[in-house]
Amino acid sequence: MLENVISSPSTREVERIRPQSLLFTLYGDYIHHYGDRIAIRSLIRLLAHFGISDQAVRTTISRMTRRGWLSAERNGNHSSYVFTDRARQVVQEGTARIFDAPQAAEPWNHCWHLVTYFIPEEHRSARDQFRRELGWLGYGMLTQTVWVSPRHQTAAVQALAARLDIQNFVQTFHASSEGFLAPAELVTRCWDLSGLNLDYANFIACHAATLNHYRAQRDAQAEWDAGECFARRVLLIHQYRKFPYRDPYLPNELLPREWCGWEAAALFRDYHTLLAARANEYFLTAYEA
């Protein structure tokens, strides 16, 4: 089935997708709109589009239940699964990052927001998580304990430090650069924009032709296969969803020439919207709570 649904680059991508990742994507874009629960037979039917066997679905469900991501409900011989509060929070945060991300560069006042910290070794786990999430917020590592961003995000940093109970070890500043590094050199030191831009370009190359094909079909009022739309839309989200965690969303004057990030974001939004109606129709034919 899958060979008829997606092109060969996406097929290679599917081979690397874990069933658990697909379940999180399904929940974020579909399941939670219809009451937070889904029957296991519905999951089996939906994930078959991606070459995932019945047994692999059941194994994944069992593993996610043991790890606290899902809870089981039974009605006679009918088994359904509900995402736990912990899982819902993860999905909600991911959905917000994808769909509430900046759609264009913001003006820059040429000031930097700095985060410094000295977190003791006994708080190593919190320190590692703090560094990880600073990156998600768009900060780049200038030195081991100094992170910078051209965007003012004091409230988000304070909330992160409070959640990890390390606020006594963290301090924030606003500063202007008066040293020996030009802004472009500072950016190169703090972020791998070349690698990110290449990944954006590959994402565009993977999806632009099929997006244009669907646009042409829409204009010609051609009929679309609902299952194909569903599979493409799930893969689109899966392939795009890591970008908002990697992209610092820098002002235009700090971005490299021929930056592909804004084009990739626009392509994602347009393609996701274009496929929505038929993809949702297919989901509802398979969905049981």
What ranges have pLDDT less than 50 throughout 5 or more consecutive residues?
Answer: 1-11
Q: What percentage of residues falls in helices of 4 or more residues?
A: 40-55%
The strand count comes to: 7
What spatial order of strands do you see in the largest sheet? 5-6-4-7
Dominant shape: flat
What is the element string, with H for helices and E for strands? Answer: HHEHHEEHEHEEHEHHHHH
Distance between the termini: 25 Å
Note the total helix count: 12
Chain-averaged pLDDT: 88
Strand content: 5-15%
The total domain count is 3
Gyration radius, rounded:
22 Å
Structural class: alpha+beta
Report the major sheet: 4 strands, antiparallel
